Amino acid sequence: MKISEIINEYINTNEKIENTNKKLKGLRDYNKKLTDGIIHFMENNKKADITYKNSTFELKKNTSNSVISQKLLKDSLASYFNNDEDKVKSVLNHILNNRTQTEKTELKFKQSN
Description:
This protein has 2 domains: 3-58, no CATH class; 65-99, no CATH class. The chain is built from 3 helices and 2 strands; from the N terminus they run αββαα. The chain has helices at 3-44, 70-80, 85-97; strands spanning 49-52, 55-58. The longest helix is centred in the first third of the chain and has 42 residues, at 3-44.
């Protein structure tokens, strides 16, 4: 295959992916609205689960934590070390400098119109 054929195929495939993603986003948004309606019904009727045909819908509560940002780390360390800036900087720099770094080569594609 010539490079021009490969690039042309890449562009065509990329367009198909973008169109499919738009359709999927629409379906996910619609399903989210339906989900909200089912949850509303179940909560109002105090139901933990509903069986419909061969499917079961259950209400589950999930708890998640926020991401650990540099600001959160700095604020938490400042609180822990009673605002001792030298200790905060030292520990924060130690943590940030010991993060794992990975490098990977990627192809960036921008379509100009």
